[in-house]
Design brief:
Blueprint (H helix, E strand, L loop, with lengths): L6 E2 L5 E2 L3 H4 L7 H6 L4 E5 L5 E4 L1 H7 L18 H18 L1 E10 L5 E12 L5 E10 L1 H41 L12 E7 L9 E9 L2 E9 L4 H20 L3 H15 L8 E11 L2 E9 L4 E4 L5 E4 L16 E7 L4 E5 L7 E2 L4 E2 L1 H10 L5 H15 L8 E7 L8 H5 L1
Length: 426
């Protein structure tokens, strides 16, 4: 085969060879390779006495060869901590295994500084397997140590940022909890001849909900109540909730007719939020008035789920309020009114849609109004407190399927006490 001094491309064009590769490389002697290696080399006797050391390591140490060879041991090159580790871990492992690699130590470098290194040692044995000497390689780990230190600082900074974020989150949750409580009555008032109970479930401590309720006196023998849900979450929803509660209370004291009260609220919300950020709510407003052993309930609804009545005989059904529109959407809106009578043992339940819109089962189906009615029908009447306790347990059973705030308000007439034997005889 014919050869030329020039390489040829497939198309036959000749290309000049790389002159850098073609130039002869300077030859290194074995001694020069050992002395000027980019890492430290040393050989020690089995007791650690240094028998040979290269120039690179001597330069790092800032020592002369005559002061090291035959006069110092490998452990003498290490810092105090390095010596302790060498005696307790390094040397025993090397003796047991015959080699050890990648051990991080610090040597006493020139000018009194500490120099991080990675050390690898291997025992050389004779033909009979007897140990003769220890060969050790020392690599400069300064860049690695700096990288590890920077990595540690970054990790510590990230951990500190995480702790600070968690602390800020806790403070924000506490502020939200306080603000949320300020939008609800601290406790329900005591009403002679009536029983009341409530519950508020917060779906997320990081978000302010818009559910609300209240119960307050109007005049002798009459009490007003309301429960509703403002659209959205967060501070904006909280502001609407505050305005809604204030408006409902003020309107009720002026004219407690339920339809009139909701009409006033509709006007206030529509006039206040007519810009690019419309706000609206659903609500039920009602008035309780005692009439002998019964209580008359007059209420009106604006787009809110119907109230439910559990009767003393164990039956339960909704109090329909069809046709009521969302409050604040239109300048004028119709609201549906209804009337009912509560007798001893009856309980009126108002709730927000977080309850009926909870997701249940493997298919995450809506819980729904039918299931709620069946749940209440299947329980013996126990008054407002008993009903709220049962519903609180139901909410807890939904787990992650309950992803919206839920407000519950129950109002009822205590069941008549059974007559004693003496009362029956008289």
């Amino acid at each position: 085969m014919h050869r030329t001094d020039q390489a040829s491309e497939p198309d036959g064009e000749r290309v000049a060879p790389d002159t850098a590769l073609a130039a002869p490389l300077p030859e290194d002697s074995a001694e020069e390779l050992y002395e000027q290696a980019p890492c430290g080399y040393l050989s020690t006797l089995m007791d650690g006495t240094i028998a040979k050391i290269n120039a690179t390591l001597l330069d790092w140490l800032g020592l002369e060869r005559h002061a090291v060879v035959g006069r110092m041991r490998f452990a003498d090159l290490l810092t105090v901590g390095g010596k302790l580790y060498h005696e307790t871990h390094f040397a025993p492992l090397l003796q047991m295994k015959g080699e050890i690699s990648g051990i991080a130590l610090d040597i006493k470098a020139a000018a009194g500084r500490r120099m991080p290194v990675l050390v690898t040692s291997k025992v050389k044995t004779g033909e009979g397997g007897e140990p003769l000497l220890i060969r050790t390689t020392v690599f400069d780990a300064g860049d690695r140590r700096a990288y590890e230190a920077e990595l540690l600082r970054a990790r510590q900074a990230a951990e500190e940022a995480r702790r600070q974020a968690e602390a800020d989150r806790r403070r924000l949750q506490e502020a939200f909890a306080v603000l949320q409580q300020s939008l609800l009555p601290a406790e329900l008032p005591t009403i002679p001849g009536l029983e009341a109970a409530s519950h508020y479930h917060t779906a997320s401590p990081d978000l302010l909900g818009g559910d609300f309720y209240d119960l307050f006196p109007l005049d002798a023998g009459r009490w007003a109540f309301f429960l509703g849900d403002v659209c959205g979450k967060g501070p904006q929803a909280a502001a609407v909730t505050s305005l809604t509660r204030y408006t409902l209370r003020a309107a009720a004291l002026h004219d407690a007719d339920p339809v009139t009260v909701l009409t006033t609220l509709n006007t206030v919300l529509h006039d206040r939020y007519t810009g690019g950020d419309p706000r609206y709510c659903t609500a039920i407003f009602g008035v309780l008035e005692q009439d002998g052993g019964r209580v008359r309930v007059d209420l009106a609804s604006g787009g809110h789920p119907s109230a439910l009545i559990q009767r003393a005989d164990g039956t339960a059904d909704y109090l329909p309020t069809p046709g009521g529109l969302l409050i604040g959407v239109l300048p004028r809106a119709p609201f549906a009114a209804a009337r009912a009578w509560l007798r001893p043992g009856d309980t009126l339940l108002l709730y927000t849609d977080g309850l009926t819109e909870a997701r249940t089962g493997p298919l995450r189906q809506l819980y729904g109004e039918d299931a709620l009615r069946a749940f209440i029908t299947g329980r013996p009447p126990a008054g407002p407190r008993g009903l709220i306790a049962a519903l609180t347990g139901l909410l807890a059973s939904f787990g992650e399927g309950l992803d919206d705030d839920t407000a519950l308000l129950a109002l009822g007439v205590p069941a008549a006490l059974p007559a004693t034997a003496s009362e029956t005889l008289t």
